[in-house]
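Hey, resending since the last one bounced:
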Amino acid sequence: MQDKEEERSLVSVENRLNKEGFTQDFNVVDGRLQTIGHDSNKSYAPEEVTIVDFYRFEGESNPDDMSILYAIEAADGVKGTISTAYGTYADGDTDDFLKKVEDLGKNLTKKVK
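The structure tokens again:
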């Protein structure tokens, strides 16, 4: 059995999401979510993606050192992740994009895990 700390590490969550098919890395550029990689160059508007899940991580030595990892699925079936700092060090462009996606999803029926 994994210990709780290991289970909640960013690397272990990324590994689990990879096994679940969230293999694409995303970045926000000019208000659009873009795939990162040598063989892909897709981009998506906020209404073309869904946040499937998210995970918050707090820095061991500094509580201000927080990040969030989002599991995202695009309308065309591409699944991947994007991470961003949380709070003081947040990236404004990424936060703005993800807020729009969250706002669009508020009227959706959520699945209960």
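Residues 14 and 81 are 8 Å apart (CA to CA).

Sorry for the duplicate.
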